[in-house]
Amino acid sequence: MKNNTNIFRPLAVFFILIATAAVALGTGKYDVSPVEVFRAFWAGIFSLDEPCGIPSIHLTVIWMLRLPRILMALIVGAALSAAGAVFQGCFRNPLVEPYILGVSAGAAFGAALGMLFPYFFSVQLFSFVFGIVAVAFTYGFGRIRGETPMITLILAGVITGSLFSAMVSILKYMAQDAALRGIVFWLMGGFYFATWTDIGWLLPVIGGCLLIMGKLGWQLNILSLGDAEARSLGVNPEACRIVLIILATLAAAAAVSAVGIIAWVGLMMPHAARMLVGPDHRRVLPTAAAMGGIFLIICDTLARTLITAEIPIGIITSIAGAPYLFYLLRTKTQTSLV
Amino acid sequence: MLVIFRNSLVLICLLLFTVSLPAGRADSPRTVVDSRGVEIQLPAKTQRVVAISDGLVEGVMTVLGVEGKLVGLGSQSLTKTWSYRFEGRDGETVTYVNGMNPVLCINPWLSELPMVARGPAINYETLLSLRPDLVILRLGSCSLPAADDRVQMALKTLDILGLTTVVLEGPYFSGFPNPENISNEIEILGRLFGRAQPAERLSRFIKTQIQEIERRTRQIKTEKKPRVIILGLSSAARKNGAAGQAFGLDTIESYLIEQVVHAKNAFQSPGHFKPVSAEHLLAINPDVIILCTAAGYHPPRELFEAPYYRHLRQLKAVADERVKALPWTPWNCEKRLEYPIDAMVIAKAAYPELFSDIHLGDWLLDFYQGLYGVDEETAKKLRSAQWMDWTVTDEK
Lengths: 338, 396
Prior knowledge:
heterodimer; A: about 350 residues; mainly alpha; 14 helices; about 75% helix; B: about 400 residues; alpha/beta; six-stranded mixed β-sheet; 16 strands; about 40% helix
């Protein structure tokens, strides 16, 4: 009976994900009827040269404006949530999120550099590269005598985060007003600039990471038992953790470089997934990924439709996230969360 | 007879064609070259315009009498009414209310127009739903401040959406911190709306104001030039440990000080809105301080009375009471039509004797009337909207 439930629930989450994406595709400030949305969507899928009387503007709205944002929200939400689940499993700490090792601070520094020197550096590329560099720093600082104790790794993450945050502050200090506004805006995160080109490189990078992380879900289960137990079961916890951290970092850095810093998703969704399908990471990871996608699609749809302009998505995720964390602290402190 | 009839018919047809030609031309597609040098094919009739600008485009459209074509905006500075308060002497709260962009003061209905952008993020669906014939982007405005890939992406998306887009480049964006560059923008807008002559008049009016200041101050000898600083008393800067923000040599503010008013910029570093500490300010010790909009309005009274500026009371300019305030200019990323007021405030503060015949309060009324073609009552409202009523009480 329990097994049936555990299969049914992840499936239900995937159906909800598809339904959410469909509703989001039909929702927007430009008035397109559901039938027209459906027709425009299929016309695009089959690349109809003369799409049977569908106004070209409908094709543009669906295929150029809405669909890239929805897909991007799905991919980024999945990446941040799955990365959060991996980090929480690796560190055996329920309050860990994907940015714990300094990836967001590093990415912010890279983005700021790109905005300050737009003719030399690409914002996205630099944000991605420095996200990875920050985590490499953290790992380097946290490694002592050939080992990487958990506490030193987390502290190294805090140090690296502070260091890169300070460097962002220096860049903000140096920046002219225009670049400063750009940096502040980037830090708030958002899907306004989503394009098919971004999806073209994000999907393989994040999709690949998610697939491998999903395959390694059983190792996360063993890691969450503790290092001694893992060793007794023939798993090298150190090597296993490094691989998982690299994958989660890669996914988070790619997501952050594409859309800026979006808080709370990577913290909230793994918990929500665990509450739904139990602690087995083989189910937690895909469920958290799907729930992250649902959450960000909803948040982005609100961001682009609540007012005539745009609301930074970070504001919406924080409004939803802060009460959730409060609820978590009030109700779950007595029980293990991982 | 038939030949005469046929020839007459041809002649009448030709005449009719010739008579109808001007009307046909007025409705036929036109082209205009925008700030990028790109030739834009304009629709035959431009009735629905969306402007993403902090007031320059909307202000020029008001002067040209085509402001009614606006159906959407891209800057919150145009729809918002502001208030500002600070702590005065003995803990008293000093409050300023109903501050606004002059364009909103003249056209209060602008506050009802939909907003299509927030920062560099344009909501393209909102934009499309407004069915604009023309989108005017002012690069350098607070919504599109930098020449980064986001601006390129916005232009590309507008192109894909099939929206006719005209781009204006503000002085900072185009790399020339010289406000006279605004004249080019005005002239493009004039051609865009088929109002070249009024646009030229507007441009000339602004230039005349600047030239008059230049004329009076041109002969000042270097050693007699006062050292002027433009200072933003931003609360955000204060929270980060700075006393204020200054404008360096590569700014339009510096151009106004040095090239128009012929004084010296006391802040000899590059950059604008650069944080300066109290100690740094005391070291600079300028002769004249001009307070600008910086995360709020800042009247001289704030510097004289607010407890958090007590360290700055020893500045020469404060002791001599040579502190003046620029008009309330929300979202002042690029200069707008009112920039001659800045020049006149700086000039009056730097050389009071040279401008003793000019009463700033009255000059402002004349300026607003000349600029926007409004009556005296509206000019007074504009002066209040820019929180410049101190010019009436201070100078009488």
